[in-house]
């Protein structure tokens, strides 16, 4: 029974296929009568259709307008519409290949595709990849550049060409749709018949040309085959250009782009076996070849068009198109290559070779060829590209992988290129993440199970030589009496990291450095800097193991000792800490080496041993009796000796630091009025934090011990740490970012899995991350991972009642993290389920994505594949719609999907109106001055969730401009008992109700200014008088309603309130400077209530460290500026920036804020506002230089603006540019300056 059904379906499908093919043959003018053994047309087909299909060969084809009507009559022969669509696409692919050389037939096929697409019988996203795959399969069966026709051919293609059958040419491409195509169209003719017959003779499918003729095709004339394939590609490009008018999927754009580039890159390849004498002759491309090239270029230009951004221009830059060996003599081809080079030169000129701070796309790096688009991963997608390893990185050819790295010979051009890049990296200190991705582990340290790093391209030999070069360079600077101690410290940090990572063979380094010094650089070694450098790493495990197991340990030891340079006549006036350290360091290192190998006693210097005794005696004298080292009043000699001690006896030095930080004792924290717990909380009294100058000279080994012990005291101890202890901990992490950095959530939970559940630990950790270590995490590229860790905390507590302080702090940290990430990121590591973000963070993520895409573009084409899924995931839990003024600045990739969202504010107001009576009655019982306190508990236990979201709105209505008319104590208690998510919902709802009431009152004749004044006073009552609501969330809720004409006016009124100005003044005066690491005075802890207010603290007693209400609005101010600019209020934006300039200097990422706002509104900002935005940067030193050289301030700010937009901002870079401007002051603005200003757009 089943077999008969399958046979019936097969016959039905064959009949339908024949009908579709015959209909196309009819309209293509290729109709032929069916042979007696062919299947007849089904009876269901109309007589009119049969008459057309069997019309005489000499008849003219029907008019194109009739085609769609005739085609729709075929629907009855198929089980469903999808079956007809699939078959139609496969038939069209065959006819495209058959008819590509026949202009009228090609034009009809284009018409048919447009018509069928308009009614859904052709889907471009499935048709185009199949068409391109089929063409590639045909070309691949004969080699690149050799045309192959698929399906049944027509004599109109060429008078002397035979085309293989579809089934035979499709064997190598299983993904192609051609298995459905057996026996379609006009059958193939022999070469003899084609050359003589003016019309077609129908042939059965069994008579089609087989695979044996494929071998004969290779003997055809090259020019004829090139002409044929040119016609095919030209028609394919026309089809694609038509398709691009529709809204295609990103994966389709990527597929098209890949094929177009492949065609152009391989256009000039010749067949193997062609006579060399022929290939040597000059050959000019024929007209068909140039025509398809021009069509192909049209497709590419349309794909990379900046307005649509179907494919980022980065893809074209990385395609290698400009490296063609055989460039055709064609103006259009030359234009696109010129544009690629122009953009690459622009980037090479105005970007650093290693732009590690902003993580900009690296245009000179190729990606893996094995990438697929079907299942795009989440986070690892950003690391699929090879690292920027060439010099300069945007112009040179990249080196690929481990095999090539080991195959590069010393002295070759590639070796020098790699060394130049490494030297540059050692000078500019990219993040450890960059080093891990590009450096290979030395073979002697590599574990067997350790997989190779695909992007690692620098061998240990290259790295060793580059480190030696950097050492020699620093020695030369030192000998020239240039103050470069800070450079030595930075280099020591990197050197420690590289050695600990196993990227440098220690024995190889010692041998090569000793050989370098002995061969010609003896005069360079005048100080003990090399000995000090080796002393930093002597305690690393792999170094100790290497020294212990080295068969030539005596010889190695002698080489290490040979770097010692004793100062026979020390300058008694020079008692700087550095000089003392360098004078004693050889003794410290000698004692350490002696502990490994006691047999080297004969090589030791007695003076070094004597100095070791001096260190010991000095320390005994300092700690004599009960005395403790006084780090507050330490002199230079004592500081230098303590540095030496850190290399010799790390444990006593560590104990001395911990004793100092604990020296002031502890005190008990008093209970607050709302606290009912009897638990005692003890807190360390404040002392002086250790200065950066002291910490900088300590050995990295001691710093590691200190960090570990400080983490025990801060996060695992029973006593609340002092701010001085926390500041010292932070400063240690900042001093050696390569050696000491650790991801805190992972590190702490590994040491104690339940540590975050300990009271106060999560608060302290989030404060440290938000107000101290955020730039450090961004430098390491770990801000995205940190965002995911913080999101887990948010998702766990957003529904818990009363967890407002921890939740709002985590949310504020997430705001800063989202705005700091300037590459593509997922809100969840997997694109499954709704986002765990809050409503506020969801809205901020959309803004961040818009800024990223518009100012930096999309670095990977794969990102476009799941952008829509990402937007759907974000917006699945949010009902928010953005105003038209905001959307007009969004990039099209985000603006178009968001434009389709329905504004549900009207529904929200209707829901409020329906619940208003009930809510007002409840609020009357809750918030009247004489309300029963017990009713609060009843309300919290029995109220409906849909009513709880209207508590603030009901209080607002009851207040009616008279704050004293409601019971604020009850309202505050209710809001504190709510979950943070419920408070957020109340704020957003209250803002909508407030704005709606203003509109109603205006209709009743009230004055707008009076209504606004009443609204601002009422909100100030909520925020400042009784501290019932968080200010940052309320401001964000108001600016998100900027389509209401009064929302932003209320925001400005709140920003102008004296209560907020007083808070900001107190915050700035207590912080002194954003360079917190330079403040060596005992920190002053702000009272909890003054810092955070009643709503956030409530029953919490844990003291604040760096948190403050004023600091919470720092990430909000930039968003307010964005909204004001979008609403054409640049003067107000300038005034807000001026008013909050003292607060914005504490922004953790000031340059990012300035650069993003200038790039996002490029071409839309007045010059006055641009200058005000630039003043957010710390450019006071550069301004001084501008005054000295008598530089006009208009020119000065133009230069700053230009440097910022090209992502090259630093004081040094500005000074260099300003010097050039002063030297060429008369010509700079009229030539190069204005040229760069007009041609460079942000994001390129």
From TrEMBL:
Q: Which UniProt keywords apply?
A: Membrane, Nucleus, Transcription, Transcription regulation, Transmembrane, Transmembrane helix
Q: Which InterPro entries match?
A: Mediator_Med23
Sorted alphabetically, the Gene Ontology BP terms of this entry are: positive regulation of gene expression; regulation of transcription by RNA polymerase II
Q: Which GO terms describe its cellular component?
A: mediator complex; transcription regulator complex
Spans traversing the lipid bilayer: 1182-1205
Entry annotated with the keyword Transcription regulation: yes
Protein's UniProt keywords contain Ribonucleoprotein: no
Q: Which domain of life is it from?
A: Eukaryota
Localization terms from the record = Nucleus
**Similarity-based family:** Belongs to the Mediator complex subunit 23 family.
Instruction: Report the protein name in the record.
Output: Mediator of RNA polymerase II transcription subunit 23
Gene that produces this protein: MED23
């Amino acid at each position: 029974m089943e077999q008969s059904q399958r046979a019936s379906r097969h016959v039905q499908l064959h009949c339908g296929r024949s009908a579709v093919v015959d209909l196309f043959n009819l309209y293509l003018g290729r109709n032929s009568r069916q042979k007696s053994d062919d299947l007849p047309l089904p009876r269901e087909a109309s007589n009119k259709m049969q008459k057309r299909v069997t019309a005489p060969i000499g008849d003219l084809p029907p008019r194109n307008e009739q085609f769609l009507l005739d085609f729709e009559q075929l629907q009855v022969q198929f089980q469903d519409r999808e079956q007809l669509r699939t078959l139609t696409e496969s038939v069209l692919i065959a006819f495209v290949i058959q008819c590509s050389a026949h202009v009228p037939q090609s034009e009809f096929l284009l018409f048919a595709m447009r018509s069928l697409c308009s009614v859904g019988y052709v889907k471009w996203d499935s048709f185009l990849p199949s068409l391109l795959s089929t063409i590639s399969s045909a070309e691949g069966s004969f080699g690149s550049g050799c045309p192959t026709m698929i399906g049944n051919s027509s004599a109109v293609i060429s008078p002397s060409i035979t085309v293989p059958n579809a089934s035979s040419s499709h064997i190598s491409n299983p993904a192609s749709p051609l298995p459905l195509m057996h026996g379609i169209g006009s059958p193939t003719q022999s070469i003899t018949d084609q050359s003589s017959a003016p019309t077609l003779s129908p042939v059965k499918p069994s008579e089609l040309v087989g695979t044996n003729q494929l071998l004969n095709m290779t003997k055809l004339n090259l020019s004829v085959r090139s002409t044929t394939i040119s016609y095919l590609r030209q028609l394919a490009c026309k089809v694609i250009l038509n398709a691009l008018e529709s809204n295609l999927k990103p994966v389709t754009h990527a597929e098209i782009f890949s094929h177009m580039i492949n065609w152009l890159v391989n256009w000039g390849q010749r067949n193997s076996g062609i006579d060399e004498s022929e290939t040597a002759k000059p050959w000019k491309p024929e007209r068909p070849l140039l025509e398809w090239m021009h069509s192909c270029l049209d497709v590419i230009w349309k794909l990379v068009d900046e307005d649509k951004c179907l494919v980022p221009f980065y893809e074209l830059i990385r395609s290698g198109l400009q490296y063609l060996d055989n460039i055709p003599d064609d103006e259009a081809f030359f234009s696109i290559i010129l544009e690629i080079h122009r953009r690459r030169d622009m980037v090479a000129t105005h970007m650093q070779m290693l732009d590690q701070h902003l993580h900009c796309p690296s245009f000179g790096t190729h990606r893996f060829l094995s990438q697929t688009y079907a299942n795009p991963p989440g986070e690892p997608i950003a690391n699929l590209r090879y690292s920027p390893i060439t010099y300069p990185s945007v112009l040179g050819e990249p080196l690929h992988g481990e095999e090539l790295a080991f195959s590069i010979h010393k002295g070759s051009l590639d070796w020098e290129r790699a060394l130049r890049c490494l030297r540059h990296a050692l000078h500019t200190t990219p993040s450890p993440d960059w080093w891990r991705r590009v450096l290979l582990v030395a073979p002697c340290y590599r574990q067997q199970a350790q997989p190779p790093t695909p992007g690692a391209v620098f061998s240990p030999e290259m790295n060793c030589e580059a480190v030696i070069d950097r050492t020699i360079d620093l020695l030369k600077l030192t000998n020239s009496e240039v103050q470069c101690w800070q450079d030595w410290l930075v280099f020591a940090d990197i050197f420690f990291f590289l050695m600990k990572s196993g990227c440098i063979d220690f024995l190889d380094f010692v041998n090569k450095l000793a050989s370098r010094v002995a061969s010609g650089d003896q005069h360079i070694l005048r100080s003990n800097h090399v000995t000090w450098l080796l002393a930093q790493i002597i305690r690393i495990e792999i170094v100790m193991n290497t020294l212990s197991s080295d068969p030539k340990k005596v010889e190695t030891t002698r080489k290490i000792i040979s770097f010692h340079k004793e100062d026979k006549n020390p300058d008694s006036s020079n008692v700087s800490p550095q000089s003392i350290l360098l004078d004693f360091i050889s003794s410290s290192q000698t004692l350490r080496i002696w502990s490994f190998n006691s047999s080297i006693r004969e090589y030791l210097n007695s003076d070094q041993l004597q100095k070791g005794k001096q260190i010991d005696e000095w320390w005994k004298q300092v700690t004599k009796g009960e005395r403790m080292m006084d780090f507050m009043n330490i002199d230079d000699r004592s500081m230098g000796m303590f540095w030496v001690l850190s290399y010799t006896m790390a444990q006593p030095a560590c104990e001395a630091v911990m004793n100092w930080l604990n020296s002031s004792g502890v005190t008990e924290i008093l209970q607050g009025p709302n606290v009912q717990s009897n638990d005692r909380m003890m807190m360390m009294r404040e002392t002086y934090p250790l200065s950066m100058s002291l910490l900088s000279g300590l050995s990295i080994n001691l710093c590691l011990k200190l960090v570990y012990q400080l983490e025990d005291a801060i996060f695992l101890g029973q006593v609340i740490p002092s701010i001085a202890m926390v500041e010292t901990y932070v400063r240690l992490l900042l001093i050696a970012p390569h050696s000491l950095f650790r991801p805190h959530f992972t590190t702490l939970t590994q040491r104690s899995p339940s540590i975050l559940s300990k009271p106060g630990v999560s608060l302290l950790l989030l404060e440290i991350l938000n107000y101290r270590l955020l730039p450090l995490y961004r430098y390491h590229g770990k801000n995205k991972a940190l965002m995911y860790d913080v999101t887990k905390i948010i998702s766990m507590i957003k529904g818990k009642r009363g967890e407002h302080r921890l939740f709002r702090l985590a949310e504020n940290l997430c705001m800063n993290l989202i705005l700091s990430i300037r590459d593509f990121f997922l809100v969840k590591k997997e694109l499954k389920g709704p986002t765990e973000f809050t409503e506020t963070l969801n809205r901020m993520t959309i803004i961040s994505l818009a800024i990223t895409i518009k100012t930096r573009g999309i670095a990977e084409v794969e990102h476009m594949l799941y952008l829509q899924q990402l937007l759907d995931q974000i917006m699945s839990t949010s009902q928010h719609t953005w105003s038209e003024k905001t959307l007009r600045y969004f990039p099209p990739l985000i603006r178009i999907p968001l434009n389709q969202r329905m504004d549900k504010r009207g529904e929200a107001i209707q829901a409020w109106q329906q619940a208003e009576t009930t809510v007002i009655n409840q609020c009357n019982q809750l918030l009247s001055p004489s309300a029963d306190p017990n009713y609060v508990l009843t309300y919290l236990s029995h109220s409906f969730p849909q009513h709880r979201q209207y508590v603030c709105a009901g209080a607002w209505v009851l207040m009616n401009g008279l704050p004293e008319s409601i019971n604020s104590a009850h309202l505050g208690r209710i809001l504190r008992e709510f979950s943070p998510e419920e408070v957020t919902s109340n704020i957003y709802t209250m803002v909508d109700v407030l704005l709606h009431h203003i509109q109603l009152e205006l209709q009743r004749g009230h004055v707008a200014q009076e209504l606004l004044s009443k609204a601002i006073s009422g909100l100030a009552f909520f925020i400042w008088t009784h501290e019932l609501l968080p200010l940052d969330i309320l401001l964000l809720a108001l600016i998100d309603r900027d389509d209401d004409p009064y929302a932003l006016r209320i925001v400005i009124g709140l920003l102008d309130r004296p209560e907020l100005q007083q808070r900001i003044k107190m915050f700035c005066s207590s912080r002194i400077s954003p360079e917190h690491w330079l403040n060596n005075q005992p920190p002053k802890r702000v009272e909890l209530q003054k810092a955070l207010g009643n709503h956030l603290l409530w029953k919490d007693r844990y003291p604040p460290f760096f948190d403050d209400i004023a600091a919470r609005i720092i990430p909000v101010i930039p968003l307010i500026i964005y909204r004001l600019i979008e609403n054409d209020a640049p003067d107000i934006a300038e005034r807000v920036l001026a008013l909050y300039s003292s607060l914005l200097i504490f922004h953790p990422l000031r340059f990012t804020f300035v650069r993003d706002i200038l790039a996002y509104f490029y071409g839309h900002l007045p010059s006055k506002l641009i200058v005000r935005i630039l003043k957010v940067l710390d450019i006071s030193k550069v301004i001084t230089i501008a005054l000295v050289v008598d530089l006009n301030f208009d020119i000065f700010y133009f230069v700053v603006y230009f440097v910022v937009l090209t992502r090259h901002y630093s004081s040094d870079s500005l000074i260099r540019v300003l010097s050039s401007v002063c030297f060429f002051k008369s010509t700079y603005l009229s030539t190069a300056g204005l040229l760069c200003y007009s041609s460079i757009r942000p994001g390129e």
